[in-house]
Amino acid sequence: MIPIDGLPVLTAAEMRAAELAAMVGDVTEATLMDRAGAAIARAVARLAAGREILVLCGPGNNGGDGYIAAAMLRRQGLPVRVAASEAPRSDGARRAAALWDGAVEPLVQAKPAPILLDALFGTGLSRPLDHSVQQALCRLASAAWLRIAVDLPSGVATDDGKLLGEMPRFDVTLALGAVKPSHVLQPAASLMGQVRLLDIGVSTESQAHILARPGLPEPNATSHKYSRGMVAVVAGSMSGASELAALAALRAGAGYVLHLASAGPSGPASLHAVVRRGYAADALSEERIGAIVIGPGLGRDGDASERLNAALVSGRPLVVDGDALRLVQIEALAEHDGSKILTPHGGEFTHLFGKTADDKLSATRRAARQSGAVVVHKGADTVIAAPDGRAILCPEASPWLSTAGTGDVLAGAIGAMLAAGLEPFRAAEAGVWLHAQAARACGKAFIADDLADALSAVRG
Q: Rounded to 5 degrees, what are φ and ψ at 423?
């Protein structure tokens, strides 16, 4: 069982193509099914620890994987039962079912077991389960001590994270061959439990990957405050949000943070290391600025629009967040010839790019192409996309991030990575990873100030 950090993500169509490409020479569909069944059996044997296992098999190849796993588990001396929703329909499933020499119980009549292995339906499901199948799955899952899904829990669409009906929550999901989008896209991801990959000998390549620890910029003996990155944070009507972004930029590793606010340097300073000046458009022409963060607490009045326009014409690398996402026009972004990263949550994304029926990965890629910017589409299942099609899907984030100011912290962290010289896609990746790690370090009931402070610790 392989952790999924950094692994490629394949859609249902891409997975089918990868399997077909693997079928050369002596490798057939049956070979891949045997590999999958063997890998499942090894994983389940470790997790079951001798407890009775109930394997639920569907009529297709996912069910075939289940029959093979059940036969192998029985040969290892483990107590195994099989229940089927219906008879096998594919040639592969019929061949696999013939390898199981025990009884096959009707799914709706099956009694629970401590270990439930769901091999009813996997990749490619596009319609809800029959009501009787759905009821039986939920009943058996609720009575099990450990619930394991093969490839995807039955009732989950592969590519968009949608639930096709009522779904039980699983403890472990065993992804076959490659990670699929719904392993990390919501709402399906919240029901997956721990997702682990089982290698079945299929080569997988993709422009989309799961978030993993990135390479972070580090100072050396020749570093100074400007070489580490100068971040300018443009403040507006609500200075607390921009203060959070400035604090986060410093805590994430920026060497110099300039906070440009209407009131200038007067008033209490929450952090003395932040340089505070009164806002002036020509301040953004400072050549040493490595990134401008604009949007947190900016407001939406005439002054805010003027500050946004000044940032756009500066040519400096930009992180556009919050209110600036409500003010900016796609055409203006396209004309900005510097690096740019947009960090919208769901509502801001819809305002800027319109409603779409696309899944989140496809929608974010489209938005990146349309804007010419790296787009960080925030949420419990954040997706990062670049105009060239590269994408990163992020595992479920801490639900405690649902508090005011955490998005401002993310903007500041990304700004620090951009100012340090990372190209925009990698800067966004690094900022999102740091943000998630800081949330994990904070535990529960933290506030945005705690989150920003925690960025320093997770740089280690």
A: -65, 155
pLDDT digit string (tens) for 344-391? 999 999 999 999 888 999 999 999 999 999 999 999 999 999 999 999
Any binding-site annotation on 282? no
Whether the predicted pLDDT of 316 surpasses 50: yes
Check whether 122 is labelled as a binding-site residue: yes
What single-letter amino acid sits at 255?
G
Q: Is 299 annotated as a binding residue?
A: no
Q: Is 421 annotated as a binding residue?
A: no
* Residue 345 annotated as binding site: yes
The pair of three-digit structure tokens given for residue 349, joined into one six-digit string? 């994304």
Residue 154 known to bind ligand: yes
171 carries a ligand binding annotation: no
Q: How many CA atoms lie within 13 A of 356 on its CB side?
A: 19
| Residue 118 annotated as part of some ligand binding site | yes
Model confidence at 433: pLDDT above 90 = yes
Q: How far apart are CA 417 and CA 152, in angstroms?
A: 35
* 321 annotated among ligand-binding-site residues: no
The whole-angstrom separation of Cα 393 and Cα 363 is 13
Q: Does the annotation flag 62 for ligand binding?
A: yes
CA dihedral 395, 212, 231, 238 (to 10 degrees): 10
Q: What domains can you pick out in the chain, each with its CATH number?
A: 2-207 (3.40.50.10260), 230-458 (3.40.1190.20)
* Number of neighbouring beta carbons within 10 Å of residue 225: 13
d(CA 344, CA 392): 15
CB 238 within 8 A of CB 297: yes
Mean pLDDT of the 36-57 span: 97
Residue 92 is assigned to a ligand binding site: no
